Each structure stands twice: as C-alpha cells, then as structure tokens.
C-alpha cells in the first residue's frame, strides 16, 4: 500500500523555511583527488600545488563539483533504513518521505571560491519550498532546497539550489 502523496505534502509544510547548519569537517586533498580521478578529470590544478599557484590559487584545489556531489558525509545508513528508491532520508534534508519514491529534478550551482586542502567545511541546508502538483502520471511533491557550503570563516564556497520530486 503506498503512502498518499497529499498526506505527505501536508506533513512537509512544517519544514518550509527550516534551516540546519552542519559541520562537515576538514577536506583533504586525497579526498577531492579521488573524486577527480573517479570522474575522469585529471586537471593538474587538482593534483599539483605549483600548477595551481601559477594560476593564483594557494594550492591544489578541489574540482568545482566536489562539494555538491557528495551525497553523504558520514558512514551512511544501514540498508534497512533506506527509502524504497534506495536513497537515504538525509538526501532531501531529512524530510519524512517514507513510502514515496524520490527523483532529482534539477540543480543550479554557484561557485564562489575554490576549495583547497585542509579547508574546514560547514554546510547550511534550507528547505526553501514544498509544492503539491498534479502531474500527468498522478500527484507529486516538488521540494526545493538551498545548500550553502562555507569555509571556517563562514565565507560561501559553493551555493547549490536543488529540486526533487517525490511521488
């Protein structure tokens, strides 16, 4: 038996405007370099301090998509706590979406400052909107989030505006 979308939508209204700040820890070059290799981007700016310094950066920098691409910053949830589509609740601001399937529906990224080795990262996540829609294949919920990745001084590094569909 599936969860009625309208019921979940009504429950989600209380989360609009909810903001949470989470320290993610210190980013290490090895971590973002593994990401660069896995994504097939071997740009010397990501691996070589001297190459990055020639372009005015303090050292090797993370690929721009690194921060916004990491789906979880912890060890991850046990399999039995995953949603039916295989995602974890924290994928969408820890919103109670049990019984619904989840799909990403867009992302807009603003790259403000580069991330380098030993940068302390904090993420601030804000639930911007939750909308009920009647789609061609039935009712759905459109969820809009804003994630700000900041350094230890509170300066924006990357701002990610994301939307998800739950049905």
Give your account of this protein's structure.
By secondary structure, this protein is of the alpha+beta class. The protein has a single domain (5-166), classed as Hotdog Thioesterase (Thiol Ester Dehydrase, Chain A), CATH 3.10.129.10. Helices cover 17% and strands 36% of the residues. The chain has 4 helices and 5 strands. It has helices spanning 5-12, 29-38, 49-54, 66-69, and strands spanning 19-27, 102-111, 119-135, 138-150, 156-166. It has a 5-stranded antiparallel β-sheet with strand order 1-3-4-5-2. β4 (138-150) and β5 (156-166) form a beta hairpin. The radius of gyration is 18 Å and the shape is elongated. The mean pLDDT is 90.
Briefly say what this structure is.
The chain is α+β, with helices and mostly antiparallel strands. It is 17% helix and 36% strand.
Q: What global shape is seen? A: elongated
Distance between the termini: 13 Å
CATH topology: Thiol Ester Dehydrase, Chain A
Structural class: alpha+beta
> Helical element count?
4
CATH superfamily: Hotdog Thioesterase
Q: Biggest sheet: strands, sense, closure? A: 5 strands, antiparallel
Strand order of the largest sheet: 1-3-4-5-2
CATH class group? Alpha Beta
Second-tier CATH architecture: Roll
Number of strands: 5
Count of the domains: 1
Give the SSE string. Answer: HEHHHEEEE
Mean pLDDT: 90
Q: Can you tell me the residue ranges where pLDDT is under 50 for at least 5 consecutive residues?
A: none
Write the layout of secondary structure elements.
Elements: H1 5-12, E1 19-27, H2 29-38, H3 49-54, H4 66-69, E2 102-111, E3 119-135, E4 138-150, E5 156-166
Antiparallel strand pairs: 1-3, 2-5, 3-4, 4-5
